[in-house]
DNA sequence: TTTAATTTTGACTAATCAGTCAATCAAGTA
DNA sequence: TACTTGATTGACTGATTAGTCAAAATTAAA
């Protein structure tokens, strides 16, 4: 089991799926891009659907620290969220292909085929932590699961905007996008 | 040109694409579900890719009023946005299949193949209106295009949550989700 | 009713694809 | 070196698919 080879297949597949979609990306092209034979690809992944789902899990496992690491060691919950906000955006900048793949996967029917216990467990831990962080806000408490999803979505939107447009000053964008997220639309009273 | 027949094909396709994805939905199945022959399907749509893109445009044209209609006739910009917020959520509830299709299409490579002048123009008008509405907020003015996308995304997130979870009291959810959007995370000072 | 024009049909085709497997290769071992 | 084990290969296959087209059905016109 050559991990290097397996990862080469995964990364080639991510790029091709992003470019052509799941339907217009034959396994033969993935294998060619990964400099591997079709036979090898099917040694490492049972089926094409399996490959797609494994890519998702791979990215999820490799990116989850991004969330958690930045919730600790900050005094206020404003700072905790802001720190996570910036970290997620930075992850998107560093891994644009993985980011785009996640967006595509999450809106596809594959999403509902994922039932990975270990992943759910780890993310449940993340869930608890974030809920703890947002607890001081009464609105959030009404429906913590919605709030969780709302946060995740807002970070994704910011990252997507940054990736699709040419933003020169990332730091400044992180700042003002978080400000909109944090203060909302109420005209600021300053 | 039987419009009824064309719409039957479109709606059958939307449902099948949502269920199985673009790649695993043969045109033969779409035709069968629409109670039409394959030949007829290809009479109305040049290719399968063409069908997919036409569905997107169809939904866009048929849903754009939802945004605009609710920005007028409200006194404050808080009320305008809230009115739009509720209208979009209601549209999602009334048209869950169209909603899901849009989400799938928007994250797919097809998105970048759309270059419909007329649509861009109509949405540009919407863009101007919303920017006018949000102008009083200084944060939004820094990057109005981001704000626009942020609003759209937040409404989508709320709708998606409502569709994927069993929310009994829609009115109350509309209220509290908009509150989070409007006031942000800052602990309310009441 | 007859004729002409238009729409619909579905069997068919050419192309493509996921996945297989016997043969080859590479690495380790004695 | 000779043998064993496991990974790799890519030509091949059976199944599936997008799209065609000549014939049939339907509609409109005369």
Q: What layout of secondary structure does this protein have?
A:
Two copies of one chain form a homodimer.
Chain A: H1 3-20, H2 27-33, H3 38-44, H4 48-68, H5 77-94, H6 96-106, H7 117-134, H8 138-142, H9 144-164, H10 170-183
Helix pairs in contact in A: 1-2, 1-6, 4-5, 4-7, 5-6, 5-9, 5-10
Chain B binds a DNA duplex (30 and 30 nucleotides) through helix 3.
Please give a quick description of this structure.
By secondary structure, the first copy, chain A, is mainly α. Chain A has ten helices and no strands.
Description:
The structure is a homodimer of 190-residue chains. The first copy, chain A, is mostly helical and 190 residues long. Chain A has 10 helices and no strands. Chain A has 2 domains: 1-45, Homeodomain-like (Arc Repressor Mutant, subunit A, Orthogonal Bundle), CATH 1.10.10.60; 53-183, Tetracycline Repressor, domain 2, CATH 1.10.357.10. The first copy, chain A, has helices spanning 3-20, 27-33, 38-44, 48-68, 77-94, 96-106, 117-134, 138-142, 144-164, 170-183. The first copy, chain A, is elongated, with a radius of gyration of 19 Å. The model of chain A has no long low-confidence stretch (mean pLDDT 90). The interface between A and B is large, with 51 and 51 residues. Chain B binds a DNA duplex (30 and 30 nucleotides) through helix 3.
* Rg result of chain A: 19 Å
* Quaternary structure state of the chains depicted: homodimer
> What's the CATH C level of the largest domain in chain A?
Mainly Alpha
For the sheet with most strands of chain A, the description reads: none
Percent helix of chain A: over 70%
Q: What proportion strand of chain A?
A: under 5%
Instruction: List the total number of helices of chain A.
Output: 10
CATH architecture of the largest domain in chain A: Orthogonal Bundle
Distance between the termini of chain A: 61 Å
Q: Name the poorly predicted regions of chain A.
A: none
Shape by Cα distribution of chain A: elongated
Which structural category do the helix and sheet elements of chain A fall into? mainly alpha
CATH overall fold name of the largest domain in chain A:
Tetracycline Repressor, domain 2
Number of strands of chain A: 0
Query: Would you identify the CATH H-level superfamily of the largest domain in chain A?
Result: Tetracycline Repressor, domain 2
Order of helices and strands of chain A: HHHHHHHHHH
- Mean model confidence by pLDDT of chain A: 90
């Amino acid at each position: 089991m050559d991990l290097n080879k397996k990862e080469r297949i995964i990364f080639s597949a991510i790029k091709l799926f992003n470019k052509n979609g799941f339907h217009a990306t034959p396994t033969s092209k993935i294998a060619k891009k990964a400099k591997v034979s079709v036979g090898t690809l099917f040694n490492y992944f049972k089926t094409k659907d399996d490959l797609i789902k494994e890519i998702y899990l791979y990215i999820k496992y490799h990116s989850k620290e991004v969330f958690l690491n930045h919730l600790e060691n900050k005094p206020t919950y404003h700072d905790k969220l802001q720190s996570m906000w910036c970290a997620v955006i930075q992850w998107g900048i560093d891994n644009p292909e993985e980011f785009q793949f996640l967006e595509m996967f999450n809106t596809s029917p594959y999403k509902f085929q994922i039932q990975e216990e270990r992943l759910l467990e780890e993310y449940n831990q993340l869930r608890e932590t974030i809920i703890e962080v947002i607890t001081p806000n009464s609105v959030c408490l009404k429906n913590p699961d919605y709030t969780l999803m709302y946060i995740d979505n807002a970070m994704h939107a910011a990252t997507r905007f940054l990736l699709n447009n040419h933003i020169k000053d990332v730091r400044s964008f992180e700042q003002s996008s978080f400000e909109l997220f944090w203060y909302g639309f109420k005209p600021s009273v300053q």
